[in-house]
């Protein structure tokens, strides 16, 4: 996902939005269908790789599509898009065990998830045919975001926020099982966190009435900080609250980060390049977070050091957030817009 997001600038220049999204959905569908075959480990890994490539492409392209098509409703649509991403993942995790009970083999159940991708592919191809011109024709701007400090700042910012999410997805159930909770209860906490994410992704962008996103970002980060501190000091007292609060903060921060990057230029071409670069760097950092959390677990013997690390990251992110005043956006991007 990180590597394909970094290729977003190349995609904008050489492949139309319509074809990019269609290719990504096709790859996701093929990756899921591969699981219908005998589930050898190499085949499962290959199917996951195909799915990751498809997701990486669509995540690099879709923010600029939203900015261009919904210029006056970008925050609302971005929130809907983010909530669909998070809710879709939670829905898959919730429905798959039920489907397994009604299928001959578990890997046939995984293959069924190609169906939504195929439906989305046909719906996108039909709907996007209404546009006369492909948006990639407008992406001839000479701006190269890779050489701008702000692009790297946004990438690290996005990565650290999503690193907290990745670590929670990987280790939150294990943490609660370790301190005495059942596997079912631990899994339900993860589901509640996902529910909170979807709610945060819908609500916080809808509250974004002004271009200055710092207040809402601070709110999202504060909710994350409360959640991580709860996991550290009172994990057994109010676990549902900590999971929901953390989910609200993480879910709200994701679309707000995308909006923050899009706000740097009114031109979808420049904004799309910046968002793609931010996601590329960010997903690479986020992908390393669960591994680093495992290292901290091995060193300390528990997960408290991991939660403390992410709490400190949130404090650092709050400090960085203060720099994101619209008046301080790089003037090159503003002039090109």
UniProtKB/TrEMBL annotation:
Transmembrane segment boundaries: 21-38, 44-66, 78-100, 106-126, 154-177, 183-204, 216-234, 240-262, 274-292, 307-325
UniProt-recorded name of the protein: Cyanate transporter
Limits of the Major facilitator superfamily (MFS) profile domain: 1-328
Keywords (A to Z) from UniProt: Cell membrane, Membrane, Transmembrane, Transmembrane helix
Organism: Escherichia coli
Keyword Transmembrane: yes
Pfam family, one: MFS_1
Database matches in InterPro entries: MFS, MFS_Cyanate_Porter, MFS_dom, MFS_trans_sf
Keyword Ribonucleoprotein belongs to the record: no
GO molecular function list: transmembrane transporter activity
């Amino acid at each position: 996902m990180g590597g394909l997001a970094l290729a977003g600038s190349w995609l904008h220049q050489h492949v139309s939005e319509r074809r990019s999204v269609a290719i990504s959905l096709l790859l996701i569908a093929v990756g899921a269908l591969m699981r219908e075959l005998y589930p050898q480990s190499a085949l499962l890994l290959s199917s996951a790789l195909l799915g990751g490539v498809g997701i990486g492409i669509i995540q690099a392209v879709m923010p600029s599509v939203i900015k261009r098509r919904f210029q006056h409703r970008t925050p609302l649509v971005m929130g809907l898009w983010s909530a669909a991403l998070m809710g879709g993942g939670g829905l898959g995790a919730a429905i798959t065990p039920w489907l397994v009970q009604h299928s001959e083999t578990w890997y046939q159940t995984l293959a069924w998830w190609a169906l939504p991708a195929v439906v989305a592919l046909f719906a996108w191809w039909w709907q996007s045919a209404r546009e006369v011109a492909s948006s990639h024709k407008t992406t001839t701007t000479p701006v190269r975001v890779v050489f701008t400090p702000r692009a790297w700042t946004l990438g690290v910012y996005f990565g650290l926020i999503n690193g907290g999410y990745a670590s929670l997805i990987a280790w939150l159930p294990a943490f609660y099982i370790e301190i005495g909770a059942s596997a079912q209860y631990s899994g339900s906490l993860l589901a509640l966190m996902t529910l909170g994410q979807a709610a945060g992704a819908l609500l916080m962008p809808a509250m974004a009435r002004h271009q200055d996103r710092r207040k809402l970002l601070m709110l999202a980060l504060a909710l994350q900080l409360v959640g991580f501190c709860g996991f550290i000091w009172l994990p057994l007292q109010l676990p549902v609250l900590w999971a929901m609060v953390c989910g609200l903060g993480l879910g709200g921060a994701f679309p707000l980060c995308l909006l923050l990057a899009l706000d740097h230029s009114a031109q979808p071409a420049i904004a799309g390049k910046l968002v793609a670069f931010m996601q590329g760097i960010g997903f690479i950092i986020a992908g390393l977070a669960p591994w680093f959390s495992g290292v901290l677990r091995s060193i300390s013997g528990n997960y408290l050091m991991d939660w403390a690390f992410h709490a400190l990251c949130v404090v650092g992110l709050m400090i960085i957030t203060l720099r994101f005043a619209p008046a301080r956006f790089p003037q090159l991007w503003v002039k090109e817009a």
